[in-house]
């Protein structure tokens, strides 16, 4: 069964994930990919996500896809039952995953039962294509990215941080530009979307 837990801000949905992990009996080991944050000035959300997993009793293994070879990255993902992909620059993240030929592997593992947790950029790349996110993220940092086709795991396009600073203007501009063309799914920092095969549920956190 395909299982995705997608959000804008992982630390903001801590209790939702706690309930989800407990219900699904996810085990206590997570493979944590912080790569999207490599090109960002502010990376506090990565520390917060690490702390959230620690608070919930998870053993975290960090895998920076950009800093390891393809074989290592593929082996780690192949062995993982729970994969977390952080926020940051979506185009850079996609570039690094493609350079290590990880997209098809992630899709295979998700189909095989691996749970995928995506925060912000990590949620956006589950769409068919991420070009719509160029208003919010700088494409120029991903100089080796030849196309923006992504995981194609969902039939919607996550738009994270709606109504949240400092993304109020860029999310609104994305809605104005693509709202009529794409099936945008807006999330604030206290919401998550749960995908179980074809079923899609929005969860509201406190």
Automatic annotation (TrEMBL):
Enzyme class: hydrolase
GO molecular function: alanyl aminopeptidase activity; serine-type peptidase activity
GO biological process, one term: proteolysis
Keyword Hydrolase belongs to the record: yes
Record key words, sorted: Aminopeptidase, Hydrolase, Protease, Serine protease
Domain of life according to the entry: Bacteria
EC number annotated for this UniProt entry: 3.4.-.-, 3.4.11.2
Record's keyword annotation contains Hydrolase: yes
Family assignment from sequence similarity: Belongs to the peptidase S51 family.
Name of the protein: Peptidase E, putative
Organism of provenance: Streptococcus sanguinis (strain SK36)
């Amino acid at each position: 069964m395909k299982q995705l837990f997608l959000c804008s801000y992982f630390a903001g949905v801590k209790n939702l994930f706690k309930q989800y992990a407990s219900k699904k009996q996810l085990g206590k080991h997570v493979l944590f990919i912080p790569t999207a944050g490599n090109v960002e000035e502010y990376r506090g959300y990565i520390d917060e996500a690490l702390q959230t997993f620690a608070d919930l009793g998870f053993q975290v293994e960090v895998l920076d896809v950009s800093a390891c070879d393809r074989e290592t990255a593929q082996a780690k993902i192949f062995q993982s039952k729970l994969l977390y992909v952080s926020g940051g620059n979506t185009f850079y993240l996609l570039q690094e995953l493609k350079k290590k030929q990880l997209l098809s592997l992630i899709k295979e593992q998700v189909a095989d039962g691996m749970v995928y947790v995506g925060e912000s950029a990590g949620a956006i790349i589950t769409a068919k294509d991420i070009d719509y996110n160029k208003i919010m993220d700088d494409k120029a940092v991903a100089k080796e990215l030849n196309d923006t086709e992504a995981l194609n795991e969902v039939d919607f396009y996550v738009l994270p941080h709606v109504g949240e600073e400092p993304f109020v203007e860029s999310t609104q501009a994305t809605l104005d530009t693509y709202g009529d063309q794409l099936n945008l799914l807006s999330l604030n920092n206290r919401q998550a979307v749960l995908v179980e095969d074809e079923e899609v549920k929005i969860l509201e956190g406190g």
